[in-house]
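Quick log. Single chain, no ligands specified.
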Amino acid sequence: MTKRKGKDGELATMRGYAMPNVHETRAPSAAKEPAAPVGPPAEARRPAIDVELVMERKTTPYVDRPWAALEIWTQNRIYSVDATMTCLEVVDKATGKPEQRHPLVGAHLVGGQHEDEAGMELSHPFPRVGSEAVFEQGSGSKGARFSHTSQVERVVLRLRVLTVAPDHVISSWQDITGSFRAPTAPKG
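-> predicted structure:
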């Protein structure tokens, strides 16, 4: 580190961290006033998806219930979605209780949408904060219907880490992968 005298006092520099022939100038009032934040506002710097690491230790190699791999939070509800993008459960945030008869239980998450003056923004496979989650319901004789939530406040990807005894690894993988696979149509 070298020290040199500048117009406004002594400056410290380190070799390799300065550009040659560039002189630093400081306004006398700059040191007294706090610097304005640079970059987007704090809300825009928030990650599009939060990742939650869920650590579990089990002695038996089974998955006790469908795994909610994704949570979509809106002002009033939390939508739990499995790895096949099927809505497993809708929870009322005020009461903390599941709404068993909510019309989106069983619907397929297709992504998110946000409309503004520039057009319609679509995100896939997940909605992003500020958009609306879009679910596909049914595909019967009337065709598919698409429903959307209110504005998304948070998206949480839930990564499950399951520790089992070494002699149960194969059966554990069979249980886990079976719960993630979408039903397949019979061949023939």
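Residues 48-180 form one domain.
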